Amino acid sequence: MTKKESFVAKRIKSVGYAFKGAIILLNNEASVKVQFIIALLVTAAGFFFNISSTEWAIQLLAIGLVMSMEGINTAVEEIANFIHPEHHNKIGLIKDIAAGAVFFASVFAIIIGLIIYIPKLATI
Questions:
Q1: What's the burial of 17, exposed, middle or buried (CB within 10 Å: 0-12/13-18/19+)?
Q2: What is the tens place of the pLDDT at every residue in 50-95?
Q3: What's the chain look like in SS3?
Q4: Is residue 98 within 8 Å of residue 72, measured between CB atoms?
Q5: Do 97 and 80 contact (CB within 8 A), yes or no?
Q6: What is the pTM of this model?
Q7: Contact at 8 Å (CB) between 105 and 113?
Q8: Any idea of the CA torsion for 72, 77, 80, 82, to the nearest 10 degrees?
Q9: pLDDT score at 1
Q10: Domains, the chain, ranges and CATH?
């Protein structure tokens, strides 16, 4: 029985660490703050336009993907800066690739938003 409690306690700690990381991202990263504000705006738009359950699911997946990619990008940048604080071409390439992943997620999230909201805006 102790192992189950230990497992549960470890999971609770893991969730705590993840929550702490999310708060750190929101407090310290400008790009995450911007993405979070956009997420709040499209969430409000979802309520305003009464989007369908499928649209909600797709919108939330897009928000989660972009926010997650921003977090991973920040972690890559922090690791790269820790390993090699001075400018280095290879570190710059690594950071650019991580930022490119965020770019892909953001572009497709914008496309999803347009697919969901252009028809609704057209009926106003």
A1: exposed
A2: 999 999 999 999 999 999 999 999 999 999 999 999 999 999 999 9
A3: CHHHHHHHHHHHHHHHHHHHHHHHHHHHCHHHHHHHHHHHHHHHHHHHHCCCHHHHHHHHHHHHHHHHHHHHHHHHHHHHHHHCCCCCHHHHHHHHHHHHHHHHHHHHHHHHHHHHHHHHHHCC
A4: yes
A5: no
A6: 0.88
A7: no
A8: -110
A9: 52
A10: 30-122 (1.10.287.3610)
Tokens of 40: 């709040």
CA distance 22 to 63: 14
Q: pLDDT at position 89, please?
A: 96
- Decide if 86 contacts 40 (C-beta within 8 A): no
Cα separations in angstroms, 41 against 27, 36, 44, 75, 108? 19, 9, 5, 26, 17
Given the structure tokens 């700690």, which residue do they identify?
A: 13
Write phi, then psi, for 30 (nearest 5 degrees). Answer: -60, -40
Contact indicator for 85, 46 with CB cutoff of 8 Å: no
The answer to whether the CB of 117 falls within 8 A of the CB of 45 is yes
